[in-house]
Design brief:
single chain; about 300 residues; alpha/beta; five-stranded mixed sheet; three-stranded antiparallel sheet; 9 helices; about 25% helix; about 25% strand; globular
Length: about 300
C-alpha cells in the first residue's frame, strides 16, 4: 500500500487494494437513464484505468481512460493494448492529471498509435430499447490530462466539458506549496520537466499559449478553465466533426454513443445551430513533478 495526500481534504489516506476495489470497469452504470456522477468522481481520484467500450454493431467502440496518471500508467496501457487493434481508435478522457513524465510517455504512445481524443464519461443505460452506451460530455480533463488530450491526432472538446490547467509542481508539496521547503534539486526537477513538457507540446502540435496559460497558475490558485477561444488558440481542438472522433463503421448511422451539443465552430460564432458530438518509454529520472487538480489524490513524486 502507498500513502497519498488528498489536496481537497488534507491528512493521509491509504491507497491500496481496498481503495482500488471500488473502481469499476470504466463504464458507469446508469439506471433509467440517470448517470451515477459520484462514481465518476471517485474513479477520477484513482490511478488511471483503461477500458474498451464496445458499441457494435453501430460503431467500432472506444477507449475509456479514467483516473490519475501514475508511474504505472504507461505499463498498464501496454498491458491493455495487447491483443487489441487500437490504431485510429478514440480515447475518451476523464482525469485530474498526474505525473508529468508518465503523461508525456503515455501521450507519445497515443500519438504513435494515431489515436483520437475527446473528453467525457462512458455511461451504460438500460431502457425500453435495451442496453445503450453513451458518452456524457460533462466531464473533466485537468492538469496533465490536457496534454494527453493534445496527443490525439484529432481532438474534440464538448461544450459542457471542463478543460482546466495550472502549473506543474512537486506532488508531495502541492497541498501547501507556499509553506513547503525546496532544495536546489527540487527546483532542477521542476525546471527540467517544464522543458520536457514544452518540447512535447510543440511535438504534438500545441501552441505556446497552452504553456503560457498553464504556467501562469500556481498550485495555490484555482485551476484556469480554458474558454472556447483558448481551446482554439492553444490547438487543443482540431475538429468540430463527430465523424473524426467516432468514425462511422461501414456506412452505418451515427452511433448511439453520441449526445447533442453545439459544434465548436458554431459556438465560437454564437450560432444557435446544433451538431452531434461525442460527448516511447518514460524519461529516466529519480523524480518527476506532478500536475493534479486540487481535488485529486496526490502521490509523492515517484521514483523512476
Amino acid at each position: 500500500m502507498k500513502f497519498v495526500k488528498s489536496l481537497g481534504f488534507g491528512g493521509l489516506a491509504l491507497l491500496g487494494a481496498a481503495a482500488l476495489s471500488i473502481s469499476v470497469s470504466g463504464v458507469i452504470a446508469a439506471l433509467g437513464g440517470s448517470a451515477q456522477a459520484g462514481g465518476a468522481l471517485e474513479e477520477r481520484k484513482l490511478p488511471m484505468r483503461f477500458t474498451w467500450v464496445a458499441c457494435e454493431p453501430n460503431c467500432r467502440g472506444w477507449v475509456s481512460a479514467v483516473g490519475i496518471v501514475t508511474n504505472e500508467s504507461p505499463k498498464d496501457f501496454e498491458e491493455f493494448a495487447k491483443g487489441r487493434e487500437l490504431r485510429g481508435a478514440t480515447v475518451v478522457l476523464d482525469s485530474s492529471g498526474g505525473s508529468v513524465n508518465d503523461s508525456i510517455a503515455l501521450g507519445r504512445r497515443f500519438r504513435n498509435l494515431g489515436l483520437m481524443t475527446t473528453v467525457g464519461t462512458s455511461v451504460e443505460t438500460h431502457g425500453a430499447q435495451g442496453r445503450r452506451i453513451t458518452v456524457m460530455p460533462d466531464a473533466y480533463c485537468e492538469s496533465m490530462c490536457v496534454f494527453l488530450l493534445l496527443s490525439g491526432k484529432s481532438r474534440y472538446v464538448p461544450e459542457t466539458a471542463h478543460v482546466r490547467v495550472h502549473q506543474i509542481w512537486m506532488g508531495d508539496r502541492a497541498e501547501d506549496a507556499r509553506a513547503a521547503n525546496y532544495s536546489a534539486d527540487d527546483l532542477m526537477i521542476v525546471e527540467r520537466d517544464i522543458g520536457r513538457l514544452a518540447k512535447y507540446t510543440f511535438d504534438m502540435g500545441g501552441a505556446g499559449d497552452l504553456l503560457s496559460l498553464s504556467l501562469n497558475v500556481p498550485p495555490w490558485e484555482d485551476l484556469h478553465e480554458l474558454s472556447l477561444d483558448e481551446l482554439r488558440t492553444t490547438n487543443l481542438v482540431t475538429t468540430d466533426a463527430v465523424a473524426e472522433v467516432l468514425p462511422q463503421i461501414g456506412g452505418a448511422a451515427v452511433p448511439a454513443a453520441v449526445v447533442a451539443a453545439k459544434s465548436v465552430q458554431d459556438r465560437l460564432a454564437s450560432s444557435a445551430a446544433n451538431d452531434l458530438a461525442v460527448v516511447a518509454t518514460p524519461a529516466k529520472s529519480t523524480k518527476t513533478a506532478d500536475a493534479l487538480a486540487p481535488m485529486a489524490s496526490v502521490a509523492a513524486a515517484p521514483s523512476q
